[in-house]
Protein backbone atom coordinates (compact mmCIF):
# COMPACT_ATOMS: atom_id res chain seq x y z
CA UNK A 1 0.00 0.00 0.00
CA UNK A 2 1.30 3.50 -0.90
CA UNK A 3 2.08 5.73 2.05
CA UNK A 4 -0.96 7.84 2.98
CA UNK A 5 -0.32 11.52 3.50
CA UNK A 6 -2.20 14.54 4.73
CA UNK A 7 -1.57 17.53 2.49
CA UNK A 8 -0.16 19.97 5.05
CA UNK A 9 2.20 22.85 5.83
CA UNK A 10 5.19 23.05 5.65
CA UNK A 11 5.09 19.72 3.78
CA UNK A 12 2.94 16.57 3.59
CA UNK A 13 2.27 14.81 6.91
CA UNK A 14 2.83 11.05 6.67
CA UNK A 15 0.15 8.99 8.42
CA UNK A 16 1.37 6.04 10.49
CA UNK A 17 1.16 2.58 8.93
CA UNK A 18 -0.37 1.19 12.16
CA UNK A 19 -3.14 2.45 14.39
CA UNK A 20 -0.97 4.99 16.19
CA UNK A 21 -2.95 8.15 15.60
CA UNK A 22 -5.23 10.01 18.02
CA UNK A 23 -7.42 13.10 17.95
CA UNK A 24 -6.68 15.42 20.86
CA UNK A 25 -9.40 17.99 21.60
CA UNK A 26 -8.17 20.66 23.99
CA UNK A 27 -10.44 22.44 26.51
CA UNK A 28 -13.69 22.75 24.52
CA UNK A 29 -15.36 23.47 27.85
CA UNK A 30 -18.19 25.85 28.70
CA UNK A 31 -15.76 28.03 30.74
CA UNK A 32 -14.09 29.19 27.53
CA UNK A 33 -16.90 28.93 24.96
CA UNK A 34 -20.11 30.11 26.60
CA UNK A 35 -21.31 33.48 27.89
CA UNK A 36 -20.92 33.62 31.68
CA UNK A 37 -17.74 31.54 31.74
CA UNK A 38 -14.11 32.37 32.54
CA UNK A 39 -13.32 33.58 28.99
CA UNK A 40 -16.33 35.88 29.00
CA UNK A 41 -15.45 37.16 32.51
CA UNK A 42 -12.06 38.19 31.17
CA UNK A 43 -13.80 40.35 28.55
CA UNK A 44 -13.32 38.06 25.54
CA UNK A 45 -15.69 37.49 22.60
CA UNK A 46 -16.57 33.83 23.11
CA UNK A 47 -18.46 33.75 19.78
CA UNK A 48 -15.11 33.54 17.99
CA UNK A 49 -14.44 30.18 19.68
CA UNK A 50 -17.93 28.80 19.08
CA UNK A 51 -17.38 29.13 15.32
CA UNK A 52 -15.05 26.08 15.23
CA UNK A 53 -17.46 23.71 16.97
CA UNK A 54 -18.92 22.14 13.77
CA UNK A 55 -15.40 21.56 12.39
CA UNK A 56 -14.16 19.88 15.57
CA UNK A 57 -17.34 17.82 15.56
CA UNK A 58 -16.63 16.62 11.99
CA UNK A 59 -13.18 15.42 13.06
CA UNK A 60 -14.54 13.78 16.21
CA UNK A 61 -17.14 11.91 14.12
CA UNK A 62 -14.50 10.78 11.59
CA UNK A 63 -12.07 9.49 14.26
CA UNK A 64 -14.90 7.59 15.94
CA UNK A 65 -15.99 6.22 12.56
CA UNK A 66 -12.48 4.91 11.82
CA UNK A 67 -12.16 3.48 15.34
CA UNK A 68 -9.28 5.79 16.26
CA UNK A 69 -8.60 7.16 19.73
CA UNK A 70 -10.34 10.42 20.70
CA UNK A 71 -8.99 12.17 23.80
CA UNK A 72 -10.26 15.39 25.31
CA UNK A 73 -8.90 17.67 28.00
CA UNK A 74 -10.45 20.17 30.38
CA UNK A 75 -8.54 22.80 32.32
CA UNK A 76 -9.69 22.72 35.93
CA UNK A 77 -8.68 22.52 39.56
CA UNK A 78 -9.71 20.52 42.60
CA UNK A 79 -12.39 22.24 44.73
CA UNK A 80 -9.82 23.00 47.46
CA UNK A 81 -7.54 24.55 44.78
CA UNK A 82 -4.62 22.52 46.16
CA UNK A 83 -3.42 21.99 42.57
CA UNK A 84 -3.68 25.68 41.62
CA UNK A 85 -0.49 27.63 42.21
CA UNK A 86 -1.28 30.93 43.99
CA UNK A 87 0.55 32.70 41.15
CA UNK A 88 -1.95 31.28 38.65
CA UNK A 89 -4.95 32.21 40.81
CA UNK A 90 -3.78 35.79 41.36
CA UNK A 91 -2.66 36.46 37.78
CA UNK A 92 -4.53 39.14 35.82
CA UNK A 93 -6.42 40.85 38.62
CA UNK A 94 -9.67 39.69 36.99
CA UNK A 95 -13.04 40.48 38.57
CA UNK A 96 -13.64 36.71 38.71
CA UNK A 97 -10.71 34.56 39.80
CA UNK A 98 -10.23 30.79 39.68
CA UNK A 99 -12.41 29.30 42.42
CA UNK A 100 -14.79 32.29 42.66
CA UNK A 101 -18.52 31.64 42.15
CA UNK A 102 -19.66 32.68 38.67
CA UNK A 103 -22.81 32.30 36.58
CA UNK A 104 -21.81 28.68 35.72
CA UNK A 105 -20.50 27.66 39.13
CA UNK A 106 -17.00 28.12 40.55
CA UNK A 107 -14.58 29.34 37.90
CA UNK A 108 -12.27 26.61 36.49
CA UNK A 109 -13.16 24.14 39.23
CA UNK A 110 -13.59 20.49 38.28
CA UNK A 111 -17.15 19.20 38.39
CA UNK A 112 -18.75 22.65 38.15
CA UNK A 113 -21.22 23.22 35.27
CA UNK A 114 -18.85 25.63 33.52
CA UNK A 115 -16.07 23.08 33.58
CA UNK A 116 -17.93 20.52 31.45
CA UNK A 117 -17.29 19.97 27.77
CA UNK A 118 -19.87 21.71 25.55
CA UNK A 119 -22.78 19.35 24.76
CA UNK A 120 -22.01 19.32 21.00
CA UNK A 121 -18.68 17.58 21.71
CA UNK A 122 -19.72 15.47 24.70
CA UNK A 123 -17.39 12.48 25.09
CA UNK A 124 -18.76 8.96 24.74
CA UNK A 125 -18.77 6.98 28.01
CA UNK A 126 -15.70 5.00 26.91
CA UNK A 127 -13.69 8.08 25.86
CA UNK A 128 -11.11 9.60 28.19
CA UNK A 129 -11.22 13.19 29.40
CA UNK A 130 -7.94 14.36 30.93
CA UNK A 131 -8.31 16.91 33.71
CA UNK A 132 -5.33 19.23 33.58
CA UNK A 133 -4.33 21.86 36.13
CA UNK A 134 -1.97 23.64 33.74
CA UNK A 135 -2.03 25.04 30.24
CA UNK A 136 -0.09 22.09 28.79
CA UNK A 137 -1.92 18.74 28.76
CA UNK A 138 1.21 16.79 29.81
CA UNK A 139 1.86 18.75 33.02
CA UNK A 140 0.68 16.79 36.07
CA UNK A 141 -1.54 14.40 34.05
CA UNK A 142 -1.35 10.80 32.81
CA UNK A 143 -1.58 11.81 29.13
CA UNK A 144 1.87 10.46 28.22
CA UNK A 145 1.12 7.15 29.95
CA UNK A 146 -2.19 6.88 28.05
CA UNK A 147 -0.55 7.61 24.70
CA UNK A 148 2.14 4.99 25.36
CA UNK A 149 -0.47 2.43 26.41
CA UNK A 150 -2.32 2.97 23.13
CA UNK A 151 0.91 3.02 21.03
CA UNK A 152 0.14 6.51 19.76
CA UNK A 153 2.88 8.26 17.78
CA UNK A 154 0.79 10.81 15.81
CA UNK A 155 -1.46 13.51 17.31
CA UNK A 156 -4.05 15.54 15.44
CA UNK A 157 -4.58 18.56 17.67
CA UNK A 158 -7.67 20.79 17.92
CA UNK A 159 -9.33 23.05 20.47
CA UNK A 160 -8.83 26.30 22.34
CA UNK A 161 -7.14 28.61 22.77
CA UNK A 162 -4.59 28.35 20.00
CA UNK A 163 -1.71 30.27 21.55
CA UNK A 164 -2.30 29.16 25.15
CA UNK A 165 -3.33 25.58 25.98
CA UNK A 166 -3.17 24.29 22.40
CA UNK A 167 0.28 25.61 21.60
CA UNK A 168 1.69 24.69 25.03
CA UNK A 169 0.41 21.13 24.62
CA UNK A 170 1.75 20.85 21.07
CA UNK A 171 5.20 21.96 22.18
CA UNK A 172 5.15 19.53 25.11
CA UNK A 173 4.14 16.72 22.72
CA UNK A 174 6.74 17.69 20.14
CA UNK A 175 9.50 17.55 22.77
CA UNK A 176 8.32 14.07 23.72
CA UNK A 177 8.69 12.85 20.13
CA UNK A 178 5.09 12.90 18.92
CA UNK A 179 4.35 13.82 15.30
CA UNK A 180 1.88 16.67 15.80
CA UNK A 181 -0.49 18.30 13.34
CA UNK A 182 -2.54 21.35 14.36
CA UNK A 183 -5.85 21.67 12.51
CA UNK A 184 -6.06 25.27 11.29
CA UNK A 185 -9.85 25.65 11.25
CA UNK A 186 -10.45 23.48 14.34
CA UNK A 187 -8.53 25.73 16.71
CA UNK A 188 -9.31 29.30 17.70
CA UNK A 189 -8.19 32.19 19.84
CA UNK A 190 -9.88 35.25 21.28
CA UNK A 191 -7.11 37.12 19.39
CA UNK A 192 -7.03 36.33 15.63
CA UNK A 193 -3.51 37.67 15.26
CA UNK A 194 -2.24 35.29 17.98
CA UNK A 195 -3.81 32.35 16.15
CA UNK A 196 -2.13 33.30 12.88
CA UNK A 197 1.19 33.81 14.65
CA UNK A 198 0.92 30.40 16.28
CA UNK A 199 0.25 28.66 12.96
CA UNK A 200 3.25 30.46 11.48
CA UNK A 201 5.47 29.51 14.45
CA UNK A 202 4.51 25.84 14.16
CA UNK A 203 5.26 25.68 10.43
CA UNK A 204 8.47 27.74 10.52
CA UNK A 205 11.96 26.26 10.15
CA UNK A 206 10.72 23.11 8.42
CA UNK A 207 7.95 22.40 10.92
CA UNK A 208 9.91 23.00 14.09
CA UNK A 209 6.88 22.20 16.25
CA UNK A 210 4.98 20.11 13.65
CA UNK A 211 2.50 20.56 10.85
CA UNK A 212 -0.74 22.44 10.15
CA UNK A 213 -3.57 21.52 7.76
CA UNK A 214 -7.26 22.23 7.30
CA UNK A 215 -9.89 19.82 8.61
CA UNK A 216 -10.80 18.88 5.03
CA UNK A 217 -7.17 17.99 4.31
CA UNK A 218 -7.08 15.84 7.45
CA UNK A 219 -10.36 14.14 6.53
CA UNK A 220 -9.11 13.41 2.99
CA UNK A 221 -5.92 11.83 4.38
CA UNK A 222 -7.85 9.73 6.89
CA UNK A 223 -10.24 8.52 4.17
CA UNK A 224 -7.30 7.52 1.96
CA UNK A 225 -5.61 5.65 4.82
CA UNK A 226 -8.48 4.06 6.75
CA UNK A 227 -11.50 3.62 4.42
C1 LIG B 1 -6.63 29.62 28.72
C2 LIG B 1 -6.79 27.61 27.42
N1 LIG B 1 -6.64 30.41 27.65
N2 LIG B 1 -7.50 26.49 27.34
N3 LIG B 1 -6.80 28.28 28.60
O1 LIG B 1 -6.49 30.09 29.83
O2 LIG B 1 -6.20 28.05 26.45
Helicity range: 25-40%
| Number of continuous helical runs | 9
- If you average the pLDDT, what whole number results? 95
Main sheet properties: 6 strands, parallel
Kindly state the number of beta strands: 10
* Rough outline: globular
Radius of gyration (CA) equals 17 Å
Query: Largest sheet, order of strands side by side?
Result: 7-4-3-8-9-10
Distance between the termini: 13 Å
Detailed description of the structure:
The radius of gyration is 17 Å and the shape is globular. The strands form 3 sheets. It has a 6-stranded parallel sheet with strand order 7-4-3-8-9-10, with helices on both faces. Strands 1-2 form a two-stranded antiparallel ribbon. A two-stranded antiparallel ribbon has the order 5-6. The chain is 35% helix and 20% strand. Strand 9 (179-188), helix 8 and strand 10 (211-213) form a beta-alpha-beta unit. Helix 4 runs parallel beside helix 9. It is of the alpha/beta class and 227 residues long. The protein contains 9 helices and 10 strands. The structure holds dicarbonimidic diamide. Residues 27, 32, 75, 135, 160-161, 164-165 line the site of dicarbonimidic diamide.
